[in-house]
Amino acid sequence: MVKFNLVTLVLVAGCGFASAFVPEYIHICHRNDPEVAECIKNSVEALRPRLIQGIPELDVPGLDPLKIKKIVIFDGAQTPNLDASLSNVVAHGAGNFKITTLKLDVEKKTYRVGVKIPSLQMEGDYDIDAKILVTPIKSKGHFHANATDIDGQALIQGDVNNNRFKFQSIAFKIKIGDFNLDMDNLLSDDPVLMQAARQLFNGNKQDLISLATPYIERKCSEVLLDLSNKITEKFTYDEAFPL
């Protein structure tokens, strides 16, 4: 969820705006500039302090901390016997992002964006409904988590109609190097089962990350597409990305 906000700003705020209705603190980049990708990177870097705090006039939430109302990690469809969601999540560390890839095909309106975050510290509430062997596990509580070496890549297709730019599709991929999770109140009334559950989670982290990744990617793509178009609809294409 953190990644989609970064990718949005790289593409939208980073492109620069030329209209008097757009904040003057956003550096202008021109689409006929042969170094437009580098210009966008520099523009986003200059915006970093504001990105961390958020830009209300562009409907851009703050990155650090980033607040996420709810995200479903497992829905039981592709992961039988496992439903899990996180809510009221607060994540710290996204402000340390680095743009790793930025390639633009201005004529085809195609963009490739890569962002890396060294680490994220998260906390919030969890709700899990699962089964270990034949033992059902239903638990709610507070969690603390730490994710490291987070890499996000987005392939984005846009279109211009009547001088209005709209994002048509976003294919989002994410990789997480490592992930540690501690859940309070997890089967606290059964110490043996609690220990077995924790060993299951911690001993199969990479498998769990692989299972959870498609859900996270799909949610990020949906929210990124909606957020991006909410921003771009405020301006004409020539205002947002002048020649």
Automatic annotation (TrEMBL):
Question: What are the record's GO terms for cellular component?
Answer: extracellular space
Q: Which residues form a coiled coil?
A: none
Biological processes per GO annotation: circadian rhythm
> Matching InterPro entries, A to Z?
Haemolymph_juvenile_hormone-bd, To_sf
Name the Pfam families for this protein.
JHBP
Signal peptide residue numbers = 1-20
Q: Which UniProt keywords apply?
A: Biological rhythms, Signal
Sequence intervals crossing the membrane: none
Q: Which domain of life is it from?
A: Eukaryota
Q: Name the protein family.
A: Belongs to the TO family.
Give the matching PANTHER family: CIRCADIAN CLOCK-CONTROLLED PROTEIN-LIKE PROTEIN, PROTEIN TAKEOUT-LIKE PROTEIN
What is the recorded name of this protein? Uncharacterized protein
From which source organism is this entry? Ceutorhynchus assimilis (cabbage seed weevil)
